Amino acid sequence: MIAYASQQPEWAIGFLDEVWWSRFARPRMHAWQSEEHPVRLIEQAWKKGDPDPKALACYGVLWQKGPPDDPDRSQIWLRFVTGRPVSAISIQFLALCCERLAAQGKRNWLLIWDNASWHVSKLVRN
After folding, report:
1. How many CB atoms neighbour CB 110 within 10 A?
2. Could you read off the pLDDT tens digit of each residue along the chain, which spans 126 residues?
3. Which of 59, 54, 53, 29 lies closest to 41 in space, CA to CA?
4. Distances from the Cα of 126 to the Cαs of 13, 24, 36, 88, 100, in angstroms?
């Protein structure tokens, strides 16, 4: 599909994903540490009236420009939002990308992403 789409002038090929960070959820990660300097994660506690967001998410699309065997990966679109990625915010980012692609004369978007729950939700699929 990528080979086909890369030969169509009205098609765009984009690899999309998100990452998010929470101030309160402990990350599931492993780290190398020494006995002299152990890694310490400090659990944050939310205080009523705290003005800072509980989480921050970054949406990103890497656009393939050129043949699949030699992609020009010089164009990346990013969007930072407060909160974690959910279907409604994903739809906003997809709509923004579609508007920008339409302005470039692109009519079709081959979107490549994983099966995160907010990607395959009924809301996003519609």
Report:
1. 16
2. 888 998 899 999 999 999 888 877 665 666 677 788 777 666 667 778 888 888 889 999 988 876 655 656 568 899 999 888 889 999 999 999 999 999 999 999 999 999 888 888 899 888
3. 29
4. 20, 32, 54, 12, 20
Which are the contacts of 103, defined by CB distance < 8 A and separation ≥ 6?
none
CA 24 – CA 44 distance, rounded (Å): 5
- Chain center to CA of 89: 11
Structural contact between residues 57 and 19, judged by C-beta atoms closer than 8 angstroms: yes
Is pTM, for the whole model, over 0.70?
Answer: yes
